[in-house]
Amino acid sequence: DPNKDLPRVLERTVIDAAKLFFESKKYDLAAARFVAFQKEFPLSALAPFALEKAGASFAQINKIDQALSAYDLYLKTYPKLPAAKDIRWSAAEMSATAKLYLKAAEHYQQFNIMFPADGAQKSASLKAAENFRLAGKFSDAVNEYEKHLKTVKAPAEQMRVLRLISASAVKASNGSVALNALERLSKLVRQPD
Given 79, 137, 155, 168, which residue has the most CB atoms within 10 angstroms? Predict the structure, then answer.
């Protein structure tokens, strides 16, 4: 049947046109084509690529909400694909830059859960803590600072993180956690180098 391959030919034609717009830095046109592709062919093997590129295209033209929507849909629909790791990190960084602190914190936190080795290397817990703190979620910040503290070897950095834990605990009205952090800090300060 000569029409058997027609859907795949159509998919390839649409995705190739979108890629050309992207490569030509016509990101608004690329974004529209990638979104249209993903909606028209949601079961296509190319649908994840289209969604990823839609997010990247929107990011290039500073349409952060639309970029994050595309990335969030990708992460919800295709969480196990290899590109999910980079997309999760990009969504976290983009959210932080856009001062969407709670969204950034949640992306960093999820990154750390899903990719612990990479999370430690990129200090995902620290970034999650900082964004939770900026979002006013001080208890969540304390939890993430504690996770980060477990990965820190340098005494100066341990002291800095303990001060952040204490300050965040105070903001969270958790005096016992603040006191505990200060006690651990005092032990570090008393240790000889």
Answer: 168
